[in-house]
């Protein structure tokens, strides 16, 4: 199966600004790459003589195809864009128990796979993909810059409480998982039972569609994944991160993760950094004005960082 054969993702397109919708001649090349115990599905938006490469990472409510809303404008601006489906999501095939640590190691190998062709490489993470992009950048050589719509350190229990489906679930759930994840880690539960998925977008009709989609917000994840996501292992603390510049493009009307939650980590970063607010945008920033700003800020950031 692939997005070319299963067109369910097209339901999302009508909620996007017209210029961000995918036309037939804009559809990415689809293929799989073998990494660890997975066959990672890739959406690859190719351009002639690209100015740079952007590898985009979705969060716990998305998949690679949902990132088309930003991949298309970046492609139009001359950047090669690569959107993988991370294990548990989209069409990526995997064996064994998936943990968040596996996301990090898989992400590092994805970046290294494409870096075989030398080119300025940027990472762009949305939602939980923001912290993931940071962790991958810390482990990969020669990353030109990192961009994110939010960056949440789930080791901070303030963040865990405010992003979970309810505060009690955050506290009690993590305590129970700390004692049981090694025994029943393979058990799967819907992500929407844990995280506040209904706030993934400010359009309730779209949120309902996403939460019914078993390849995005409606997927089931293992208890081992949940525990490792809530207790991530960071190789580099933000005070020691100087590898590359960092751009935070945070939605103004994010009803899931307020900008102040991201600032708890962002303000500690030792690298060159920049914060821009996307006016009127929700967590999944599909609103026209905020999306235009996101494109403009990301392109300007990359143009400033380009080395070739």
Provide a descriptive summary of the structure in words:
- With 308 residues, the protein is of the alpha/beta class.
- It has one domain: Alpha/Beta hydrolase fold, catalytic domain (Rossmann fold, 3-Layer(aba) Sandwich).
- The protein is built from 10 helices and 11 strands.
- The strands form 2 sheets. Strands 1, 2, 3, 4, 5, 6, 7, 10 and 11 form a 9-stranded mixed β-sheet that branches. A two-stranded antiparallel ribbon has the order 8-9.
- A hairpin with a 2-residue loop joins β1 and β2.
- α3 packs across α4, α5 packs across α6 and α6 crosses α8.
- The radius of gyration is 18 Å and the shape is globular.
- The N and C termini lie far apart (38 Å).
- The relative contact order is 0.15.
- GO terms for molecular function: hydrolase activity.
- It holds the Pfam family Hydrolase_4.
Which percent band covers the strand fraction? 15-25%
Biggest sheet record: 9 strands, mixed
CATH class: Alpha Beta
Distance between the termini: 38 Å
CATH superfamily membership, which one? Alpha/Beta hydrolase fold, catalytic domain
Number of domains: 1
Gross morphology is globular
CATH architecture: 3-Layer(aba) Sandwich
- The parts where pLDDT drops under 50 for at least 5 residues are none
Count of individual beta strands: 11
What is the N-to-C succession of helices and strands? HEEEHEEHEHEHHEHEHEHEH
Class from secondary-structure proportions: alpha/beta
- What is the gyration radius calculated from CA atoms? 18 Å
Overall mean pLDDT stands at 92
Helix proportion range: 25-40%
What is the CATH topology?
Rossmann fold
What is the number of helices?
10
């Amino acid at each position: 199966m692939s997005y070319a054969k299963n067109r369910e993702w097209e339901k999302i397109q009508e909620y996007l600004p017209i210029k961000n919708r995918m036309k037939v001649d804009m559809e990415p090349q689809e293929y799989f790459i073998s990494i660890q115990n997975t066959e990672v599905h890739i959406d690859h938006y190719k351009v002639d003589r690209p100015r740079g490469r952007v590898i985009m990472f979705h969060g716990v409510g998305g998949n690679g195809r949902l990132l088309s809303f930003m991949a298309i404008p970046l492609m139009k601006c001359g950047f090669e864009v690569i959107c993988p489906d991370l294990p548990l999501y989209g069409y990526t095939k995997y064996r064994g128990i998936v943990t968040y640590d596996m996301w990090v190691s898989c992400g590092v190998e994805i970046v290294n796979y494409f870096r075989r062709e030398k080119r300025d490489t940027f990472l762009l993470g949305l939602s939980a993909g923001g912290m993931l992009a940071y962790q991958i950048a810390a482990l990969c050589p020669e990353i030109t810059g990192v961009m994110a719509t939010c960056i949440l350190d789930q080791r901070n229990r303030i963040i865990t409480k405010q992003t979970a489906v309810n505060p009690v679930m955050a506290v009690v759930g993590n305590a129970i998982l700390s004692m049981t994840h090694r025994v029943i880690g393979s058990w799967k539960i819907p992500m929407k039972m844990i995280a506040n998925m209904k706030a993934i977008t400010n359009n309730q009709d779209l949120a309902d569609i996403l939460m019914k989609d078993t390849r995005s917000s409606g997927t089931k994840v293992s208890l081992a994944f949940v525990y490792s996501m809530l207790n991530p292992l960071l190789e580099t603390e933000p005070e020691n991160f100087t590898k590359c510049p960092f751009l935070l493009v945070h939605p103004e009307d994010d009803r899931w993760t307020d900008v102040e939650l991201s600032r708890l980590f962002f303000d500690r970063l030792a690298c060159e950094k920049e914060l821009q607010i996307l006016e009127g945008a929700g967590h999944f920033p599909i609103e026209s004005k905020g999306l235009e700003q996101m494109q403009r800020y990301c392109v300007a950031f990359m143009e400033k960082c380009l080395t070739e």
